[in-house]
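Retro notes, item 3 of 5
We never archived the inputs for the pyridoxal-5'-phosphate complex last cycle. Fixing that now. Sequence and ligand:
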Amino acid sequence: MQYISTRGQAPKIGFCDVLLAGLARDGGLYVPETWPKLGESAGGAAVGSAKNSAVASYAQKAASIMSPFVGAEIDQQVFEKLCTDAYSTFRHPEVAPLVEIGPNEYLLELFHGPTLAFKDVALQLVGKLFDHVLTQRNERVMIVGATSGDTGGAAFDGVASCRNVDIVMLYPSNRVSDVQRRQMTTLTAPNVHAVAVDGTFDDCQDLVKAMFNDQKFRDANQLSAVNSINWVRVMAQVVYYVTAIEKLGRTAVFSVPTGNFGNVLAGWIAKQMGAQIEGFVVASNTNDILTRFFESKQMVANVVVPTLSPSMDIQVSSNFERLLFETNNRDGAETAKQLTDFRATGKLDVVASAYRKWFEGVFVGRRCNDEQTLVTMQDVYKQSAILIDPHTAVGLSAARQSAGVDYPKEMPMITLATAHPAKFPDAVRRATGQTPMLPEHLADLMSRPERSVSLPNDLGAVQAFVASCRG
Ligand SMILES: *Cc1c(COP(=O)(O)O)cnc(C)c1O
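Structure as it came back at the time:
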């Protein structure tokens, strides 16, 4: 399997190079040359996902579903071992259990990993892959990234034990929860560095993009990325859409709490690969650029407003570029032009015919403000005695708005539960009066000493810091 850039100007590369590169040299994102079908392994032989699905572990299924994307670059048995190591860090044996909470209403619990957010599903595997590939190549990299809260902790946990990786994560100061911040600032591993930037998440993301677009700096520091623009993150998330449908045994709609569009894009890929998925509810909080896009076929950027679901406080969803590339029939030049214009004007239109072909009947957008978020958390607690986090609540509210309107009432709706309630205790307490408990391995998180650096929203200052962190 070879990978091409959504902007059409970077050379084709294989899986391991895509893993390490993150962003393509032309500023685009890597996508596989073709979308494989489920059940096709790298060698073309049918793999076990259908046959022994009931007995295979999540890790085995994951290895089999992802193998066409990895291709021949990593031996299949080695890859399966890396998956097994990655998913053994999860507290639930099923890794991503499907829980029925009402008639045709399900939660897909993705928060049983070490840092309590769905990002662990991808980043635990990414950490194992980095270690494997860098050890083989005898190389060292500097991972830089931006986090709206959950990526930072999950990325640190994923790579803290990698011998050949240093990592710097930028986060918007005062816009992440105490638990999120502490998951970044309390690690003692010498190769991880949390940086509070005086700005928003989009500012942090822009700083990271600027570092990558500075070729001299990029090469001198061996920059690498594990943000959701990294293909391997998206790839790892395809797996639980497939396993959820397999568990359910029939078609369903997924409601996905969305920020950077990585998670819902993974669902769309699972559908491309042949998973029996009816469609997607793209759930946004008050930062509803995607909902407005699905309503108007036009993307218009706004300012970011802080909400109870900070990991979705994003206006420019970077992974949307991968879908845009498809709507342009994989024309990289056209995609690059649209995105450059979007940068300049803050507006992006998709022509009606492309919209009908790629979006209609597949995606609907729904929004949920803070008040609806709290009401949804309260309702679920009253109905089922389940505590859900505010991001999951946005997804569930969107699913409930959509059920019986966009889809028949009998259609199963699976909301992705993207974070553990204990990650956002203040919102949970406000909604339900209950204080969710942190799992045992994090019980003393709030009393561990913190270590973090504060920097202005300034490229020069950030670059100087990154350069000083190379091990
Ligand atoms: C990152 C995150 C999201 C948004 O996911 P995207 O892939 O960026 O769309 C939603 N909920 C939680 C808890 C997250 O950490």
